[in-house]
Design brief:
The chain crosses the membrane at residues 20-44. By secondary structure, the chain is an alpha+beta fold. It has one domain (48-318). The protein has 5 helices and 14 strands. Strand 13 (292-297) and strand 14 (302-306) form a beta hairpin. The longest helix is centred in the first third of the chain and has 52 residues, at 23-74. The relative contact order is 0.14.
């Protein structure tokens, strides 16, 4: 049996022994992966935001159901805020949210309220510590921590208070939308006032009920926005003097929120403000969604309002009986 030469790879020794990527090939693979991630990430983020917007929309729908359940029981919408006159001559106020707790299946919280005492006395003082999940938009980056200051939970939905600003007419918390006040009611909600369905002459599908709003920042009473448990309605009443996400500043001239240059986030700082003896404020509807806000109408439907909505249309949507024509929006 003769000697046989060893078999060799016809492709040559270098190619036969190579089993790893070259640096160029590795870089090419990394580049392809990076391109795929860059292409897919916006789609993933968009899908997540779409889910959050749907959640936000459902929150507003639940609030709409609660408002209409209240209307079915009392034949009018819940008042935007309540001021109670006691025999002692003292006047105490209670927040809007308290009125609809039973309709939100939170009667256990409502039953803890003592309506014979000031909102800040007794068991009432502890109620604001309770977060209300349906009041929180998941797109808000602070939605994971609803207790925004040591005293109370915040929320992202406010009431349509019409095109007028909040005005403390007598220094005791009366509002520009109080019936009989110096500025007439023009929206479905006011101090000691909730509209009846028949009173909304503009049509419930053409009248705003609630809109998104940004939570305040910081602790204490400096930035009052979104303090849904507060008995002062200027914490959650939305003015249509400003369009959604307006670059114009929200403002507040009330002793507990003076000199705050941060009312206009994420835009340029608002000018500093000085408190007056009788405060006033105007808060725009704002959200962390891109391009607009979600709004609840008085018929219980929820719609999207773009930032670019015409101011006249936006203000027409906020009135209840001016019979002003609302166009496409």
């Amino acid at each position: 049996m003769g000697w046989a030469a060893p078999l060799t790879d016809s492709r040559g020794p270098d190619r036969a022994n190579r089993s790893a990527f070259t640096l160029v090939e590795l870089l090419a693979v990394i580049a392809v992966i990076a391109i795929l991630v860059a292409l897919l990430l916006p789609a993933v983020q968009q899908a997540r935001e779409s889910s959050r917007r749907t959640h936000c929309r459902n929150n507003l729908k639940q609030l709409g159901i609660a408002i209409h359940s209240y209307e079915s029981a009392f034949r009018q919408f819940p008042p935007g805020a309540v001021r109670v006159d006691f025999t002692t001559g003292n006047r105490y106020r209670m927040p809007f949210i308290l009125q609809i707790l039973p309709q939100l299946d939170l009667a256990v919280l409502f039953n803890q309220a003592d309506l014979s005492k000031s909102w800040h006395q007794g068991t009432n003082a502890n109620l604001p510590l309770n977060p209300i999940p349906v009041y929180v938009c998941p797109t808000d980056p602070t939605s994971g921590s609803q207790l925004m200051n040591p005293r109370e939970a915040f929320g992202n939905y406010g009431l349509n208070w019409g095109m007028h600003r909040y005005l403390d007419l007598d220094g005791n918390g009366s509002s520009s939308n109080e019936p009989g006040g110096s500025v007439p009611v023009c929206s479905p909600f006011g101090l000691n006032y909730g509209a009846t369905i028949s009173r909304i002459k503009d049509g419930t599908s053409n009248t705003l009920a609630m809109m998104e709003m940004l939570k305040g920042i910081g602790a204490g009473g400096v930035d009052r926005r979104g303090r849904i448990w507060n008995d002062d309605s200027n914490c959650y009443q939305i003015s249509t003097r400003l369009t959604p996400n307006s670059r114009a500043s929200d403002y507040c001239e009330i002793a507990t929120c003076i000199d705050n240059p941060r009312f206009n986030l994420p835009y340029e700082p608002a000018p500093e403000l000085t408190a007056t003896g009788r405060g006033q404020s105007a808060l725009a509807s704002r959200s962390h969604h891109v391009g607009g806000v979600q709004v609840l109408l008085c018929d219980g439907s929820v719609r999207w309002s773009a930032d670019s909505i015409d101011l006249t249309t936006w203000q027409a949507l906020s009135t209840e009986r001016y019979r002003d024509l609302v166009g496409e929006w």
